Amino acid sequence: MDRQTAHILETIQNEFAVIVQIVESLSGLSSRWNGAVLLTDEVLISGRPCFRARKDWSCGLTVHVATIVQPQMHLTLVHEAFHSVSVGARRQQLEGNRGFEEGVVESLTRFHGLDILGDAGYPNRKSQAREQFDDFLEALESIRRVCRADHDTFYLGLLRTPLAERRYTVVKWACQTDPHVSESRMTARLSLALRRLS
Ligand SMILES: [Zn+2]
Known about the structure:
Layout: H1 3-27, E1 37-40, E2 53-55, E3 61-64, H2 73-85, H3 91-94, H4 98-120, H5 134-147, H6 151-159, H7 163-176, H8 183-189, H9 191-196
Parallel strand pairs: 1-3
Antiparallel strand pairs: 2-3
Bound molecules: zinc ion (ZN).
Zinc ion binds at residues 79, 83, 102, 105.
């Protein structure tokens, strides 16, 4: 590894550690991040990077070389930090529940990201609109309206709920707003949004 790459990795590692700490205290959850950061230059056939950053299933953080020059980089780290504390987000559970992980993590990133970066001392001067996972966010927002929950009650509540149970949990929350509606009727009422979160 050349010196420049080593320096970049060390910087990201230090910054991610600070962000993870803030996300842990905000959520009351412990991160599974093992302290490691890897760089990758994997690209799709189109030549575009496969991803910005991702939590590996071994619980290291992998960052794409294309990401580190983007103004969005720090918000991407916030997004990954929320994944690292998300309860029960394992590969098997992700299948069929992707929106309940990506949507929840992305909503928390958009809602708290700039404050977290401010607290960390990395103000995001050039804040860009984030568009990834908009579809999941719309579906989750439509469910949140039925639950009549405020942002953090809903999204931090879901982050603290094992991923495999989030689908059932939102139905339960929605039912609490109207005791006359059965869980099966509520599931039917929310079915369109629930399907978009698969
Ligand atoms: Zn993600």
